[in-house]
Structures are given as C-alpha cells and as structure tokens.
Write a structure and sequence with these properties.
The protein is of the alpha+beta class. It is built from nine helices and seven strands; from the N terminus they run αααααβαββαββααββ. The longest helix has about 90 residues, at about 85-175. Bound molecules: adenosine-5'-diphosphate and magnesium ion (MG).
C-alpha cells in the first residue's frame, strides 16, 4: 500500500469513518431510544459498511475500532468502557467479526476491480498502439499505391511516343518509300512491326488501367449494330483461329435490335473474349459468338470448347493481372488485364459481365449492353 496518501485517500480512510460513526452515534442517541431499541451496534454497522465501501480496509477497520469502543460505552449499562455482560460481549464479538470480514471482503473486491481496470487500461493502450501502427501502414501502402499508379501512367504515356515512331517509320520502310527491300528485309521488318503492335496493345491496356484506377475512365456511347461489330471481330481473328484448326462463327437473329454503346470499347471487349477463347481452346475446338435481346439488354456470349475454369478460380478472373495457370497462360501470352478492363468497360455501360464454365469441357463468357431507345 502506498505510504504517501493523497488528500482524497486521507478523507476517505480517516475523516469519513470518524464522521460516519459520529452520525451513527448521533442517530442512536436521538432516534433509537424513543423507538425502544437499545443496541447501538445496529446503527454503527451501516457506518462501518459505508466506511469500508469508500475507504477500503483502512476506513472499515478504523470505523470498526471506533465503533467497538463507542458501542461498548453506549450499551446498557450505559457509560462503561469495558464489557459488562454476556450480551454486550456477544454483541461486540459478532460486530467485530462481522465488520472485520465485511472490510476484508470489500477491500478484496476493490482490489480486484482496480486490477481489472488496470488490465483494461493496458489492453486499451495496446489496442490503440496497434491501430496507430496499422493506420501508418495503411497510409504508407496508399502512398506506395499512388506512386505506382503515377509511375504506370507516366511510363505508358512516355512509351507511346517512341512506339509511334517505330510504327510510323516501320510502315514507311515496308512501303519501300525509302528504297527497295529484299525478301529477307521484308520478313524481318514484318516481325519488328508485329512486335511493335503487341507492345502497342500492352501500352494501351496499361493506359486503360491507369484511367480506371484514377476513376477517369469514360465511354462515348452511340447507337450501334452488334452483328456488324461481331462480324468485324470474327474477321480479324479468323486466321488466328484457323491456325489452330478452330471453327469460329456467329449465331444470332438477323434483326438484332441496336445497342447504345461505345463501338471501339465493345470491339475491345469482344476481341479479348474471342482471343481468350482461341488461346484456351485446344486444336480442333469450336467457338461461337452469340447474341440475343433479353428485356432492355442485349446479351452477347462467347462460348468455347476449351480447357474451362474451375469454380474456385472464377472470382479471381476479373481481377487485375490475374492469370489462372501461369505456365499455360504464359505460353498463350497476355497480361491478365483483358478481363478486368472488359469488366470496367461493360460496367461503364451499365451492363454486366460473367462466365459459366465446366473444367475440361469449355467456358461461356457473357456480357450485356443496354438496347438503344429503352
Ligand atoms: N475462355 C477461357 N478459357 C479458359 N480460361 C480463360 C478463358 N478466358 C480467360 N481465361 C483465364 O483468365 C485469365 C485472364 O484473362 P485476361 O484477363 O483476358 O488476360 P490474358 O488474356 O492477358 O491472360 C487468363 O489468363 C486465363 O487464365
Ligand atoms: Mg485476354
């Protein structure tokens, strides 16, 4: 117990017990005789109780001691400090043991309460420190993310200029404007330009991604005919499909209603889905592009007889840079950005995108676009 007591502790441990016993005695002298009760300990017990409750063991014991002295003085025969009868002895004994025990129990409870308060305080401090550290970590992560986004944006913008000159001057060379080329030079140049095209595709994907991340991704919708767009995409990718022995065709009614969409972006989504279907369908397989109107939307599907996707991988598909089987997809090429960009494009149109798939049998990727004039 601390030796340098505070004023509050002095009041609670000394002054309060003395005052309460004083009040008890006063009440006894004023009220109880008129009611015909002669045992002063009846009123001194509450004084000890409150002293122990507020002043702990010190307050309780002090009140007990004073009460024992004052009580034996007040008990019949009145005015004697020492025990005069068995009744007085019994009263004193019961009072002393009762009050002592009460004081001890109160003190133990008080200490337990203090301990749990202390523990709770320590726990609160520990939690606060953890939250503070975590907040700092989150802040650092946000900053790192912002730097990464900025880096991505700068790099993709800066790559465009040199890429444009590679493409531009490459085309001039290929057209033999700067002089005739032999067979081998033509071949090498075509390979170079194909590489530049791929790089261009990648840079465009990164630019789209930076716009999506910055919340600056916009579309310019107008009325468009999905059948024509699908025919264009199939035409572009026909030879790639044919090189793997895949059949690729469109199925849908001639009178498809027009949709309200950004044509360039829809071509981008459909090309990615068909390109994926080609990449992940083994030789000799089939790919269908289908479209039909459902309510106020047009539903477009790309179905393949490819490798399929296991159910637990489906939620990962539309996340950035997510390629499921790294070895297989590395072989197929790509960045893992196509589907996440497609999702952003479709959602910007107010549509939905999804997939149903059976591993080993094939997949059906689908998306919806709003019909024009609804
Ligand atoms: N038709 C499909 N069949 C099987 N897996 C697919 C299909 N389309 C997409 N995937 C899986 O989803 C991943 C992400 O596709 P995507 O975002 O277009 O990126 P990328 O084509 O650059 O790999 C692919 O790497 C592949 O693992
Ligand atoms: Mg892709």
């Amino acid at each position: 117990m601390s030796s340098n007591w505070t004023n509050r502790q002095v009041i609670l441990r000394f002054l309060l017990p003395i005052t309460l016993v004083g009040i008890g005695v006063a009440l006894y002298l004023v009220i109880l005789p008129s009611l015909g009760l002669a045992n002063p300990f009846l009123l001194l017990f509450p004084a000890v109780m409150f002293s122990a409750l507020f002043g702990g063991i010190w307050g309780g014991l002090l009140a007990t001691l004073i009460s024992v002295v004052v009580g034996s003085y007040l008990m019949e025969p009145y005015g004697h400090l020492w025990i005069q009868s068995t009744t007085e002895f019994e009263s004193l004994l019961v009072f002393f043991i009762g009050c002592g025990m009460f004081s001890l129990i109160t003190e133990a409870m008080h200490r337990a309460q203090l301990q749990s308060q202390e523990r709770a305080k320590k726990l609160t401090i520990a939690i606060e420190e953890k939250v503070y550290a975590q907040n700092n970590q989150i802040k650092a992560l946000r900053e790192a993310y912002a730097i990464k986004d900025q880096f991505l944006s700068i790099v993709s913008h800066e790559l465009r200029t040199p890429l444009n000159s590679i493409n531009g001057f490459g085309s001039i060379l290929e057209d033999e404007i700067a002089g005739p080329l032999n067979q081998q030079q033509h071949e090498y140049l075509r390979k170079m330009l194909r590489g530049a095209d791929l790089l261009n595709f990648l840079v465009n994907n990164l630019l789209d991604l930076t716009q999506i991340l910055a919340g600056e991704f916009t579309i310019t919708p107008s009325e468009m005919n999905l059948r024509e767009v699908a025919a264009g995409v199939i035409d572009d990718l026909k030879s790639k499909a044919a090189s793997k022995g895949l059949t690729l065709r469109f199925e849908g009614p001639d009178d498809l209603p027009p949709v309200l969409a950004d044509e360039i972006r829809v071509v981008q989504v459909l090309s990615n889905l068909v390109d994926n279907a080609i990449k992940f369908t083994p030789e000799g397989g089939k790919i269908w592009v289908r479209a039909c109107a459902i309510g106020a939307f047009l539903r477009i599907e790309v179905e393949d007889t490819g490798v399929g996707i296991v159910p637990e991988d489906i939620p990962k598909l539309f996340k950035r840079f997510s390629q499921l089987d790294m070895s297989a997809t590395r072989k197929a090429g790509g960045t893992g950005l196509g589907l996440s960009i497609s999702k952003a494009i479709i959602e910007a149109h107010g549509g939905e995108i999804g997939v149903e798939s059976t591993p080993g049998k094939g997949s059906t990727f689908w998306f919806t676009l709003p019909l024009a004039g609804t």
